[in-house]
Amino acid sequence: MKIELDLRSAPPADLVPTLAVLQRLCGSGTPPPFVQLTRAQLGELVQAAKGKPVFFWANEPKVPLLWIGSHLRGVSDHLRDASPTASSSQPREAGGSPLVQSPTPPASRQIEVPRSRGIATPSTTIRPRFQATGLAPSGNNRTAAPQPLQVDGSENFLSVQLPSREHSTYAAALEWVKANGFILEPSNRKWWLRDRHKVLNLLANERSRLDRDFRAEFTENFERNTAHFKLAEIECQAEQQSDGFSLTLGLSAGRVSEEKLLQAAAAGRGYVEEGKQVYLLPPEKLAILARAQRALAGHPGAPVVPRRTHRISFARLAEAEEVLAEVAPHFQPPEQWRARSEALRNLTKLVPAPVTQEFEAHLRPYQKLGVAWLWHLSRHGLGGILADEMGLGKTIQAIGLLLATHGVPDRLRRPSLVVCPASLVENWLRELARFAPALRVARHHGASRWSPSAGGETEVVITSYGMLAREREVFADHDFRCLICDEAQHAKNRRTLNAQSLRSLHAESRVMLTGTPIENSVDDLRSLFDILMPGLIDALPPGTRGEDKTWFDERMRAKTAPYLLRRTKQAVAPELPPKIEQVLYCEMSAAQARLYREVQESSERALLDLEASGASEGALRLATLTQLLRLRQVCCDPRLLPDSLNATKGADSAKLELFRELIAEAIDDGHRVLVFSQFTSLLGLLREELDSQEIRHCYLDGSMSPPARQAQVDAFQASEAIPLFLISLKAGGTGLNLTGADTVIHMDPWWNPAVEAQATDRAHRIGQTRAVTSYKLICSGSVEEKVLQLQETKRTLLADVFEASDAASAKLSLGDLKALLA
Question: What's 674's DSSP letter?
């Protein structure tokens, strides 16, 4: 027990009697560090401090002991025989010398009282202090360790002696024996449970808690009487099948039959018996088994039985190992299992892909690892998503897979198929010619057509998503060695022709490349894996929501994680110069602000009328998006509005003025600039501006043919005399390498930050040697400013699969759209 009192200032009047008793007990002069009090002396101190919240247990220094009248709870019961009469002015040892240990500084002195719980501190800290802590009366003045809870008995009865009152677990232990049906026997102050069934259930359910929470001591008699108790174990066995493994997972309890185990589980009994042997079934072990069985069964409601056999396909081996790591950590999978899954869990175990030394010389270390990972998946008939951050060279890693694949003889002489956006067909042809000139490549796009009858002469076929959807029958009946889907987000919606066409293809292995593997929801990931590895992810049962939906999403994460490889620039390419992102705000001119308010008010009235007419949510959503478009056009340049909404065409554009200032400064400083906008009409106005200033520039939008597009890219990359490149965000946000630029301007940011990041990374990618600065141009007090806030609040995708900074925004609800418009 301890007490702390500060005497540097006048104490409260009601504490003066208590302080007087303490001073008398400690004697005159400097207080000793420890003082042992007799029960009579402690009783006198309690009487003097009656009703004051100054007593505390030493292990609970912030909770004062409770007074019940003049009775101090937990202390007064031990003082009934004590008389608070005169006591010596200072306690002494048997030999007569003061009971004082080594001195301490005057500011911190301690007084000892004769129990390890007891005297306490006033609510205010007072100095110099008197601290009283428990000290059992013994020859060497050492504090006696509190007695823990003790357990004795056998399988037929239990005898429990509670810990000493000063022990930290006393209150919880008292509550525990009462809750579990123990009866106190006054003659020996022990608590007894005399029921064999209850004893065995209790030991099964509570033994771990006795160890963990109460730090209980078990007598030698108890250990001897229960030596024949054993814990049921979880065992698993795996046997290889033609398409995977048969995995049996369940409880093992010696020779106890599965029927007995099932009966015990059904009855909620925590033990089974076989002869004289008792097997305990701890609930925590059963809970682990239940989680594992449900995970392997693929449903949160799957019944749990003592033993069950699961079919584990080759694609689920890595997931199954993750599940078994908890339930059966000593499980040793068969060699074939380990050969397939080990490298997916530990990439350092990957076998290098068989590529030429000339090609390998082009690869960075992380790219070699990526090629080895793709090769491992391909040769085991699996699929995967290479989701490296934009600019880290996913294309060259995929080419490494093609080289490894076609370096191995194939008696069927099957080609591989690359599907990409139309704008990237030419880029793929160039990259293959550069890094894999030995591969025989055919284009199936534009005027060029590949014929399956010529498959033996072709090793790689390149086509676009649009061409595949239009001529699906050309590819559907053909077998491919490898299918590579570039910019795979084009297939994220399973109902689109792109996704349907890809699902109809036959390929030995499938790979997807994307820097933004999920743009809107986990359903997009389901769509991608329906193409990659059909059957890996079970369809959601109709009506699934809430906790069940969360469970299915978590299982999907566990199943897909081994087949997703994502590296960031910061992790694997620290030599890249920094990327600086900056928001530049501009104030609309008076005329522009007035026009903005007029369009906003008109939009609100139109939507209210539409709602009043009973329009559907789809119609309201479309109307809201249209009105938002109008407001964004006003922010960019009022000239973008239809004449009916801007009859005067007189409002200036604050953003255009800021653009003029930016490019003037950039060109003067020798920077080269990429300018992105979602509005090709805005890019047209910017072209007029640059022409009027005689500033050379390149231009790219979605209406241009691939050759024309590539010609603009080549011209910009080849000539530093061209300082600007105007690019449509949708057409130029992917598949371009524009390291000739070091500055990026986003004229009209929209709600999906991943799309903006893709565009910026056209410049910030491998090969860039200068810091890249990205500017967002925002009109203050407008819908654009709200969009910036929305970008931060809607990043709610799989943070445990992909970096949060790379997750795109979640889908915008009608409420989100209305909030932007308001």
Answer: E
